[in-house]
Amino acid sequence: MKRFVDKVCLVTGAASGIGRATARRLASEGANVAIADINEEGLRSLEAEFAASGTACVVLGFDALDEASCRALAERTVARFGRLDVLCNIAGACRADHFLELRLADWDRMFAINVRSLVAISQSALPHLIASRGNIVNMASASGLCGAPYWSAYAASKAAVVSLSASLAVEFNARGVRVNSVCPGSVNTTLPGTYSVPTDVDTNAMQRLFPMTQPAAEPEEIAGAVAYLASDESRFVTGMAFNIDGGQLC
Ligand SMILES: NC(=O)c1ccc[n+]([C@@H]2O[C@H](COP(=O)([O-])OP(=O)(O)OC[C@H]3O[C@@H](n4cnc5c(N)ncnc54)[C@H](O)[C@@H]3O)[C@@H](O)[C@H]2O)c1
Asked: Domain for residue 249, yes or no?
């Protein structure tokens, strides 16, 4: 299946986990890829992989907390490839707290990385996506749909991603741009190692968040859904929040 031949796809969070798997999947289906992340070492190793397989690729270091670097991503992609067809906003961060101890500065940081950056990146990408009749796939989370004890800031930021995606889907539908979000449950990536879980938590509540009946998904499984939503196969799908959670929300 080669659904992205002659397409240009910009993938944030491409240095690791779901973003890396997505960039690989899109490239394997013929895409030219712009890979963006704060972790330039991770990007360089992916670039080397792509060079070996003959995939055209541009490496874009950026910090989701920095508006100017977010706004530059689409232009840097178009400067290299001349067009932009797909934007996958996958970079994100997570944290967990007892709600009564959550500092507003940490709440703001969660929203800046997970939501505010998507606004800046999407605003600069949309003129190019309108020109190509392209689409956006945003990485949300199952927690954004059902809430998550101790992950209140993260879950609320992902709920905002779902809502932002649906709003843009309606606003840009007549201009030919689709916008969808993906809501994974637990995925086997390095993300859980990037923050600490508070002690003294309610294990019953935790059981709801991480049902033990299913092992975590692999990043490639999430990348498969992103690729479907980014492809013309989903031409009639927009404004969707696509759950991949092993039954968490059943
Ligand atoms: N792993 C899970 O269980 C899970 C579940 C649901 C949703 N998600 C979402 O999937 C996305 C990818 O996460 P992942 O699980 O692959 O984890 P990951 O840690 O492997 O990937 C996150 C990527 O985002 C990048 N990033 C973080 N802060 C950044 C910043 N300030 N600027 C630029 N890049 C930054 C990291 O360098 C990393 O490459 C995130 O949005 C995450 O919230 C993950």
From this structure: no
CA distances from 162 to 42, 137, 214 (A): 27, 10, 24
Which residues span the domain enclosing 195?
8-244
- Confirm or reject: Cβ of 168 under 6 Å from ligand 1: no
Tell me the two tokens of residue 234: 């989903």
Q: What is the CATH number of the domain that holds 109?
A: 3.40.50.720
Q: For 88, list phi and psi in degrees, rounded to 5.
A: -110, 105
154 is catalytic: yes
Taking the model in full, what pTM does it have?
Answer: 0.98
Q: pLDDT tens across 163-183, in order? A: 999 999 999 999 999 999 999
Neighbours of 236 (CB within 10 A): 6
Atom of ligand 1 nearest to the CA of 12: 34
Total number of domains constituting the chain: 1
Cα 89 to ligand 1 centroid, rounded to whole Å: 10
Atom of ligand 1 nearest to the CA of 21: 16
